[in-house]
Amino acid sequence: MINKSEPTITFARLTDISPDEIIAHMSDARVAEHMPLLTFKWDQNAVSEFVATKEECWRRDGLGHEAILCNDTYAGWGGFQKEGDEWDYGLVLKPEFFGLGVHILKKAIELAVADEKIPFVTFLLPNSRKKFVGLERLGARFVEETEYDGVLFLKYRLVTE
Description:
By secondary structure, the chain is α+β, with helices and mostly antiparallel strands. The protein has helices spanning 19-26, 29-32, 44-61, 101-114, 133-137; strands at 9-12, 65-70, 73-83, 86-93, 120-126, 141-148, 151-159. It has a 7-stranded mixed beta sheet with strand order 1-2-3-4-5-7-6, with helices on both faces.
């Protein structure tokens, strides 16, 4: 059992994580329940394309998605991705780590505040999410419902300046 009250959260490149670990994570029905854009089967090719796309974000923008480790155990992935003129933060955790979102977001927000190119962060949340109090306590505010790839999301924004 992971100690959720005082977890040690660190980040690593997705290239450091076994593709089989990512496949198992992304194939879990409990994860897919909150990912309406997840419409394909995760396999070795899907992981290779996913990791290559996220690494390209790092090369292009200097930021991107990373593996998230909790007490040195792979807990999921997340990070900043440039969406037009906005920096969006996405987070996809393994089910046994679902309760760590606020801990991880605190660390991510510290990074955003320290990075002058990020005046604010957006979060796109699926309609399946019903609890937003943790995100709101961190200072994020609901902006609007917005469509992304044909799916409606709830958009929140957190000013970092």
